[in-house]
Amino acid sequence: MSDRHHPACSPALFSWEFATDPYPAYAWLREHAPVHRTTLPSGVEAWLVTRYADARATLADPRLSKNPIHHSEAAHAKGKVGIPGERSADLMTHLLNIDPPDHTRLRRLVSKAFTPRRVAAFAPRVQELTDGLIDGFRIRGEADLIHEFAFPLPIYAICDLLGVPREDQDDFRDWAGMMIRHGGGPRGGVARAVKRIRAYLADLIHRKRESLREDREGKADDLISGLIRASDHGEQLTENEAAAMCFVLLFAGFETTVNLIGNGTYALLRDPVQCDRLRRAAQGGDEGLLATGVEELLRFDGPVEIATWRFATQPVVIGGQRIAAGEPVLVVLAAADRDPERFDSPDVLDLSRTDNQHLGYGHGIHYCLGAPLARLEAQTAIGTLLRRLPDLRLAVEPEEIRRRGGLIMRGLRELPVTWGPIT
Predict the structure, then answer these.
(1) d(Cα 151, Cα 176) in Å, to the nearest integer?
(2) How do residues 84-105 score in pLDDT, each as one tens digit?
(3) How does DSSP classify residue 110?
(4) Higher model confidence: residue 241 or residue 408?
(5) b/e 343-370 (16+ beta carbons within 10 angstroms → b)
(6) CA end-to-end distance (rounded Å), the chain
(7) pLDDT at 5
(8) Among 25, 207, 282, 398, which is 20 to 30 Å from 41 by CA?
(9) Is 405 exposed, middle or buried (0-12, 13-18, 19+ CB in 10 A)?
(10) Domain 16-418 class in CATH
C-alpha cells in the first residue's frame, strides 16, 4: 500500500493478517489519519473515511456520485471498481451505480418487494428453508455452517422473491458459489458467474413476459413479474435495467446475508456468555433480544466492511481533508461502527445495546433496500441454530478460521462447528 501521510508508523492494510482482524488498524486510522489516501490492491488510489460522523455525512452527501463515469481515471480503472464482470455483461444500470433521478425511479419500483408487510408474509418461507437446511445436517453432529447453511439460505430466499423457478435455483446456487469461492481475482470466477446469470436472466425475463400475457388476472406476484408489469405500463424500465436490478438484488442480497449469519455466529461462539444469553432468548421466544442482538452483530463485525464506491463530482472537504473532483471515496463501515466517539465500549459485544445507530446497511438514499429481509433471515437463522442445536461450538481453534479476500465484503471461507448429541 501507499501511505502519503504517515509512512513510518501507519499499519499495513489489505494483507491476510489485516483481513483476519482489521480493527486495530482502523483504530489507528481513526486517531491519526481519519480520511486517508491509499493505494488499493487493484492499484486504484482512493480515500478511506473511518470516523463515524464523517462516514455518516459522506454516505448522504449528494456531491459524491455512485456512477463510475465520474471517476477521474475511469478509463484506466475499468473492471477495478464495482462488481467484476458487470460492465462486459451490460449490467451497469443498477442501484449501486446510479444517482437520482434514475436511482429514485428504479428504487421506487423495486421497493414494493421489501415493504414490512411483504417481508412479514415471507417469514414462514424463511423459517421453512432454515429448518430444512438444519434437518440436512442436524443428526451428524457437525457441519460447515457457511456452505451448508449461511450460503444456501439467502440464495433460495432471494430466488423465491425474484420468481426463479425451483428447478432452476440450484443453478443460481452454483453461480453464487463461484462468486464466493473465487472472488474477483485472476481466475475471474465472479466475472464468469455474472455472464451466466446475465444470460439466464435475459431468458427468464422473456419467459415471464410471455407468461404474463396469458395471466390476465395478474396472479404472478414475484419481483421479476412486477418489474415487467411496470415496464409494460409506462414506467420506462428497459430490459437491461430489469436484468441489472435482479442481478444486484441477487449479488448484494445473498452475500451480505451469508456474511451476517457467518460473522454473527462466529462472534457468538467466541463469546460464551453472550451466546448463552441469546440461546436462552431463542428457546424462550424472546424476539426483543434476538432483534437487538442481530443489530449488535451487524455493528460488531458486519457483513460489509467498506461501502460501495463513491466518486467526488466536485472538490469536497471530508474530515478536514480536501478531496479533488473525480477521486474515489470509500467509507469504511467497519471502522465507523467501532468509533468510541459514537459507541460506548465499541470493541465489546453487547447484545442488549439499544443506542445502536450503526452504519452496517449504509445511510441516506442508498441505504440497503433489502435490510428488512436480511434482518428477518439473520434472526430466523441464528435463533433457530441456537434453539435446535444443543451445545453449538467451534470445531476448530479460532486461529484456524480463515477470512475470504475482497475489498467490500467481510466474510468467512468456512465455519466448522459441532454440537452435542440429538435426543
Answers:
(1) 9
(2) 656 655 566 777 888 899 888 8
(3) H
(4) 408
(5) beebeebbbebeebebbbbbbeebebbb
(6) 53
(7) 42
(8) 398
(9) middle
(10) mainly alpha
| pTM for the model | 0.91
- Cell 488510489 belongs to residue: 45
pLDDT tens, residue by residue, 97-131 = 888 998 888 888 888 778 888 889 999 999 999 99
Cβ-proximal residues to 67 (8 Å cutoff; 6+ apart), any chain:
97, 98, 99, 311
| C-alpha cell of residue 10 | 501507519
Cross-strand pairs, 312 = 64
Q: Please tell me the number of Cα atoms within 13 Å of 125 on its side-chain side.
A: 14
Find cell 481533508 and name the residue: 321
Give the CA distances from residue 294 to residues 174, 250, 302, in Å, rounded to whole numbers and listed in that order.
Answer: 28, 21, 10
Task: Give the H/E segment covering residue 318.
Answer: strand 316-318
Rg of the chain over Cα atoms, rounded to whole angstroms, equals 21
Distances (CA, A) of 221 to 57, 112, 215, 351: 37, 11, 11, 37
- For residue 191, CA distances in Å to 14, 90, 152, 253, 405 come to 22, 12, 20, 18, 16
Set of cell numbers at residue 52: 463515524
Domain chopping of the chain, boundaries: 16-418
Q: Where are the alpha helices (DSSP H) in 270-352?
A: 272-284, 287-301, 333-336
Q: Are strands 316-318 and 416-418 parallel, antiparallel or unpaired?
A: unpaired
Residue owning grid cell 464506491: 309
C-beta separation of 300 from 294 below 8 A: no
| CA-closest candidate to residue 39, choices 357, 328, 395 | 328
Question: Per the structure block, which three cell numbers stand in for 371?
Answer: 435490510
Question: Which residues are CB-contacts of 393 (< 8 A; sequence separation ≥ 6)?
Answer: 269, 417, 418, 419
Q: List C-alpha distances in Å: 386 to 91, 107, 359.
A: 39, 35, 26
Instruction: List b or e across 302-328, with b for residues whose CB sees 16 or more CB atoms inside 10 angstroms.
Output: bbbbbbbbbbbbeebebbebebeebbb
Are 207 and 239 in contact by the 8 Å Cβ rule? The answer is no
